[in-house]
Amino acid sequence: MSDSSDESIGFRLSDVDSEDSSSDSSDYLLVAAIDIGTTFSGFAFSFRHQYEDDPTQICANTWAAGSAALISLKTSTCALFKPDGTFHSFGYEAEDTYSELNLKRGLMLEEENGKTKPAIEVISHSIGYLKDRMMETCKKQQTDIRDSDVLWVLTVPAIWNDPAKQFMREAAEMAGIKSNRLILALEPEAASLFCMRLPVEKFSDGMQKGFSAFQAGSKYIVLDAGGGTIDITVHEVQPDNTLKELHKANGGDWGGTKVDEAFRMLLAAIVGNDVMGAFCQNHKTDMLDLYRDFEVKKRTITPKLNSKITFKVPISLNETHKGLNSGKEIKDSLASKAKYKDKVGWIGDKLRMDADLAKGLYDCSIKQIVAHLRELLTHDSVQGCSAILMVGGFSESPMLQEAIRSNFKHLRVIVPSETGLSVLKGAVVYGHDPSTIKYRVCKYTYGVETSEEFNPFIHDETKKFTDNSGIEFCGEIFSKHVEVGQTVVVGEPQVEQSYKVVYEEQTGMKIEVYISSETDPKYVTDPSCKQLGIMEVEMPNVHLGLDRSVQVSMTFSGTELHVEAINEQDGESTKATFDLLE
Fold first, then answer.
1. Contact 252, 246 (CB under 8 A)
2. Are 98 and 284 in contact (CB under 8 A)?
3. Are 158 and 553 in contact (CB under 8 A)?
4. How many CA atoms lie within 13 A of 134 on its CB side?
5. Which of 4, 94, 114, 178 is exposed most, by the fewest CB atoms within 10 A?
6. How open is the CA angle 82-88-89, to the nearest 5 degrees?
7. What backbone torsions phi and psi does residue 109 show, to the nearest 5 degrees?
8. What one-character-per-residue DSSP string does 413-457 give?
9. Taking residues 116-126, what's their average pLDDT?
10. Residue 482 and residue 445 in contact, taking contact as beta carbons nearer than 8 Å
11. 413-457 pLDDT per residue, tens
């Protein structure tokens, strides 16, 4: 622990945790959710009276991709900025406009034109665009709606770490969403809440009438398969219809974009990397049309597909190939590639692909998902699960659905009719009733750095130091607050710790917070440990000198870390913050 006389540099978490009553969420008229995904984004909302009548009565916007006539309930996650750096457009509009051009807090994103821009600014503009579109849409239903009437919910993958969540919160605040009107929802949790409220006929797994996978005592795996990430958690329905997380959130980057990547690699293998690179750089409109057409066609690829599938390919790709290969056309190059004989045909602007080759585009993603689920099912905490709930856009894929059903025949596979919107609509449900999530499992062991009197029998000699009074101490000790895999009650502080000032004029404290993947780390320098950030507590009233201390309560069960501090001398609250971003 170290001291500081500076102003706190963190943001106020005691006002924003989703399970905290200080979020002023009781006076809202409308809950609006924003989902910024790897490939697609969108918003949904419902008024309080709609939720009370029917929790599933949720409005979602419809988006259209003009250059490919692709209609979707979520838009492309693409932001366009003008040459002077100001925001221009977002989503399909940004894709279409951009294609006509040739063009930690400090994280920078590289634009297609090689310039860089702060990532937080890009995300903030994206959130702001969806926020403004949502307000325009809902005002059509109730014309006098104001920002202060809205409780905003921002979805984040459950596998994200705490700094990433803080990054999204700060981006949302930059977009004009007030801190105390914003909560974060974990995506698989949100989907689970939405599906719990759907009637049986809204599922496509042939569930028998009268049977529910969401009855009290039921245990099930939530497989949230999105464009970029696969987010997995395990839930148990409690007697009061709340949810208990049974296993820490897990997953990886095996989403639908792996299929897109496989398609791009196949094209590159056929035409050459140099041709694909030049095509993508010089024919952006055609490139977008190519991938949008693939997005539509890949939804028709099923395990039962036994005929060739046709993809429309821009003529400019063949022209680019000719320009870099002495006038040679793609079909001529194909003739010399034995591995694609009778599997791929190229005629004009049509690519004809063998069914097995098309289905093989899914192999990399599906194999990793199946392997991960197999490993997950070996854990004691997952025993007794009776079903897998498939949600997220990639879960709409018949290929993924069949792979899950065929590999886990002992489990019921449940697919809601609104698979791609389950997370987004579930976030709205969560905003109306966040208390439905009752227990979570810690993803890490959390603790702070501390010191204790040196004991030569248990302490590392290299960490010994002597204080001003001549007493020997051991430093860099990991003082554990909660451990990985521990079940914690949502909304209740897991740690209450008293801290005292060390000198009379001290106006604040800085306490280093650490995480570990191990259950019982000894030192903060252990290989499993890393510094998560800084907890700061303000103690501005110095008139009591050394007779000052604060009681700090830390909560690790929320969607975000939460800290509060009380002056032990007068019982008054003082500002306490976490800062997890560099």
1. no
2. yes
3. no
4. 32
5. 114
6. 140
7. -105, 140
8. EE-BTTGGGHHHHHHHHHHH-GGGEEEEE-SSEEEEEEEEE--TT
9. 85
10. yes
11. 999 888 888 999 999 999 999 999 999 999 999 999 988 899 999
